[in-house]
Structures are given as C-alpha cells and as structure tokens.
Amino acid sequence: MTTTAGNGGPSAMQRPPVVSPEQWEAAREKLLVKEKAETRARDALAAERRRMPWMAVRSDYLFEAPAGRVSLLDLFDGRRQLIVYRAFYEPGVYGWPDHACRGCSMVADQVAHVAHLNARDTTLVFASRAPQADITRLKKRMGWTMPWVTVTDSFDKDFGVDEWHGTNVFLRDDDRVFRTYFVNNRGDEQMGGTWNYLDITPLGRQEVWEDSPKGYPQTPTYKWWNWHDAYVADAPPDRKWVEVSDAGEAAFREKEAGAKP
Q1: Strand partners, 178
Q2: Predicted pLDDT of residue 5
Q3: CB 99 within 8 A of CB 91
Q4: How far apart are CA 139 and CA 87, in angstroms?
Q5: What is the pTM of this model?
Q6: 3-class DSSP state for residue 142?
Q7: In 50-164, which residue ranges form alpha helices assigned H by DSSP?
Q8: Can you say how many angstroms the Cα of residue 131 is from the centroid of all Cα atoms in its chain?
Q9: 8-state DSSP, 80
Q10: If both were cysteines, with which of 8, 73, 142, 156 could 59 make a disulfide (CB 3.0 to 4.6 Å apart)?
Q11: Crossing angle (nearest 10°) for helices 102-109 and 132-142
Q12: Residue 186 has what DSSP assignment?
C-alpha cells in the first residue's frame, strides 16, 4: 500500500498487522484499559483545577462589542463563569483582513454551541484587536456565532496573551472578578468542546459524580442536558429525558459489571 507524502512524493506506509475480528477486539480491550486510566487521570486533574487558588483582578477592563463599550464584568453576561479566548485577528496577522490567524480560526471552527455552556452558568467570549466591523464581517463569512469583542486596553498583555493565543478563565462573585485558570500553546488544542471548556472552569461540569469542594453547585448527572434551542433558565429536568438517561446509565453499569472478572 502506498500513500502520498507531504512533499508530494510516494512513500511506503508501514501498516499494522491485519487480524481476525476476535484478535481485533482483544487488542481494542487491551488499549481500552489505558484509555480509561487516562480518563480517570483527566478527571483527577480537573478536580485539582477546581481547587486552584484564585487571583483577584480588575473588572474595569474595557472592550468594544456590537452594542458598544463593555467591561470585563459585562462579558459575563450575568453568569458566574467566563472563558475568554484571545484570537489573533488584527492588522499584521497573516490573512488580514479577510481571515484571522489560521490556528485561531481552527479553534473557532471547533467551538460547540455555546447554549450548553450557558446552561452551566458559563459564558464563552473570543477577543481580538480587530475593529468590530471587521469581526462582524469575519464571523458572517466563517459562520461563527460566539460573542467576539475588541480588546481596547492592556487586557491581552496583563493576561499573557499579547503575543500568543491563550484561554483565560474567570469567576464572578457579585462585582468581584477572579482569574482561576489559564492555558495556551498545545493546551488550546483541546478547547472547543463543551466538556473540555467546563473542565477548565472553577465550578466544573457541576454534576454529582465530580470531586468538587464542599458547597460547589452540583446537579444529577446528565439530567441538565437539552437541545441547544430548548434550554429554559431554572426549568426542572425534562421527566422523559430523566427516564431515558436513567435507563441508559443503568444498562451501561450492568454491562460494565458483567465485563469484570
């Protein structure tokens, strides 16, 4: 079997062995042990993240939004948690003004519907130094819908994203704002999905199975899930969905128990 290498020339592809269905399933089960261990380690890291110290920050940073000038506190949009991704879109960035940075654009392409984050009291915002008119045009061209503001002061420099992309996480306690987490470089590769975003927040997924400090908000696992156009603030879980998810979880646990020696 041959394939085409990145330079356009043919190269031999060294394939793994071709095996029977039984051998393939045995190999998958063997790898699954390591994958589950990785999942548990990832959950433990998220639990440790939720116990990181907080850093008090100024809440008077100013941004330009479609409706005008807004503060860092305004970016929360009334929610307790705020995730801000610094995307490079400004004069001097390759692709300007038709496109943002290719890497930042890939991150934007992977962002899940923000309604699921909003349902967990979390707001996601992208921030760049491009004027709002350019951001509006870019979002329309690329089909992006997340809130996207213009940095107007030292916010990017103060939070480690003036010369590179990065994701900052903040928590609001009334009018006080705290920085709780920061990730950049390859850490940003994991961003985009609802779960990965929630796992870097101080409150986490807010489900009862999580190892969180005492008093943190937690609701029954899976029950808050909804279609992205059907969330209603403070509404109780849908009764039918509770039945379906309970049955699914019970079947999963039974299968797991039966697989153990």
Answers
A1: 56, 171
A2: 53
A3: no
A4: 12
A5: 0.92
A6: helix
A7: 72-75, 102-109, 115-118, 132-142, 155-158
A8: 25
A9: S
A10: 73
A11: 60
A12: G
